[in-house]
Structures are given as structure tokens and as C-alpha cells.
Write a structure and sequence with these properties.
Jelly Rolls, 383 residues, 3% helix, 7-stranded mixed sheet, signal, mainly beta
Amino acid sequence: MKTPLLLSLCLLTPALSFSQGYVEQDGIISIEAEDFASQTKADVRRWFKFDARTPPHSYADADDVHVEGASGGAYIEILPDTRTNHDEKLIHGENFSPEPGKMCVLTYPVYVSQPGRYYIWGRAFSTGPEDNGAHFGLDGIWQESSRRLQFCAGKGQWTWSSAQRRPENHCGDPLTLWIDIEEAGQHTLMLSMREDGIELDKIVLAMDEAFQPEGTGPEVTRYEPASLPERTRFVDIKNYSYIWHATEDFQVDAGAEVPYYVHNQKGALAINAAKEEFRKGFARASKVFEQKRAREFDLTLVTLAETDGESEYRILLNDKVIGNFKNPETSVDYREVTFTIPDVTLNPQDIISVESNAVTNGKIPEGDGTAFARGRWIGLVLQ
């Protein structure tokens, strides 16, 4: 059973999404800080996500939650926060990390189409002098120009900064924080702790030196994957060992009195019933079982029902018929129909053949007669 503290930790840690990632769009990469892909080196301090659903926690924290005004209604903060002002002890490796990449490292996958220099902007909520610094890096390298992001102005409110803290100017000057991306492609932006207690809402990388974010900044340039193609064939097949596709895996007996042709649009083998001589017999296509040992399968033939006739089908094993089927009547043309023969043992080099015929049910007028179903089938499934 989880302790209250561990439960709080689980609830404060953000869930990850398979589609998490960001892309550069017109020279802009806009990131919600709380949508990181991974967090490492988090044994002493840790980034936590805060939103309207965040439960109370028991870690040292000098200020209230600042969800109001946060982009997307959420932000991240490094806790515990044990150094809020100059009078509290500074401890390297605990509440302060001058060297980047040593504590609380977050990663953000980014895809860049335009390589070059990107100015880094962060949006933070700072309430004191010791909760206003962080480091950035790229692909495992902490470039000197991307270290020590500093927030001095705008205390007590969400504020943008692109200033780098420097020895001669602790608050830094605008547009002194940048990262150089030398190649187009996939990269990993990194964020690490400099001071505990920092609250970060959003990160923007911009190629335009004149760009300055306002309010909650530009829309997030989150990677949105294109829709994957859904299955349009073998729609009722839920599990299988192999699918032998009629048009790809079977050899058509081209010299037969009734040959098959390929119906590309449906991925089917079919008979050209426009030729009367092809209406009087069965076409055949065959496949050799090329496994090195005998195996037992349920064989499922997948045919296409047709409105103009109910074609017959035969499955043969080494020229011996092991199954006879007939398509049902249908009002939906090319509806997939399945016929199964259970427990068929296939030995190496066995030959499986599928035959079908062209028939008419006399219901669909065509020319001077009626249309013929063309014995279409799309494959044999081994389950």
C-alpha cells in the first residue's frame, strides 16, 4: 500500500504520451514545460507538475500554487525548495547546481527543419532572488550560450526572459541566451536545475532575434502524427499466423481454360465473365507451403460476396478437395465473407489451391442478359 507521501509523488508526476514531441514551425518551437518526455538525476530535487488537480504535498515550498495564468493551466517546479533568499544556506548539489546537467534533467524531443541559432525564452514565476535560474542543453551537450537562464524582473507574476546570467551582470541582458542547432532533424532539448524552487511554464525557441513572446506565448508546436491507415481488408480476421494474399502469394494457373485476372482495386483474384467461355468452369490459383516442418492450422478463405451471383469456391490440398463453399446472397457488393476449415495439417511442400467460378443469379440486368459474379476472393488465412 502506498504511503501518503509516495501517493503524492505519483500524482504529481506527469503521465507521458506516445505522441509527445515538438516540431519547429516557421522558425518557432513552442513547448509546454510540463510535457517533458523523461526526467533523470532526480534523487535530491525533482521537477513536479502543478495544475488544478494537484493534491496537497508535504515538500518544502515557500510559496503558493500559481496555476492561474499558466499556459495550458499547468507548470513545473523544482522541490523541495529550501533556499529562498541569500540568508539561507547555499549547498552545491542540493539546493544549487551551477554546472548544468547535474540535477533534475528533463528532455523534450524536437524536430527541426531549419538549422541555425535559436534564442531561448522561458516563462517563469519567481517570488524571490533564489528561485529564478535554470540551464538548457541539446543532445547531451550543454552549450555555454544556453546556460544560466535568469529571471530578475516581473516578480510575483508569469514573466518571459531570454537573459543569461553573467559575472558582470547577474540579471543578464535580453537575447543573450541561445542554442545553436547545426543540423536539421530530430534532436533532444534538455532542461536542468540551477536553483530549487524555480517555476517554469513554457519554453520557446525562436530564430528571429526580433521575436518577443507576449502573454502565454505562441501556440504549442506539438508533434501531431498523421492518422494511420485503418485496415480495409480482412476486417473480420482477429488473429492469425499467416495471411496469404490472393494477388501476391498465389500463382495463377494462366494456361487453364478459365484463368484469373487481378482486380487491383479490391486486391482480389477474379474471373472475366464478360467472356462466355470463362463462365463454364473453375479458375485456380495455388501456393506452396514452404515451412520446414508440419504444422496444423484452421484455414479461412476470405471471399467477396457479389450482388449479381453466388459464386462457388473450393479449397484443395495436393489436388484433393478439402472444402466446398458458396457465397451467400447479398445486397452489399464486395462484402467480405469467411469460410473456415478447421484442423488442417500442412506438410512441407504441400500445395494449397483455391478455385472459384463465375455465376449469375439472373437479378442484375446487363446488356442482353444479366450480370455475373466473378468468383472474387482476397486471400487464405492460416490461424
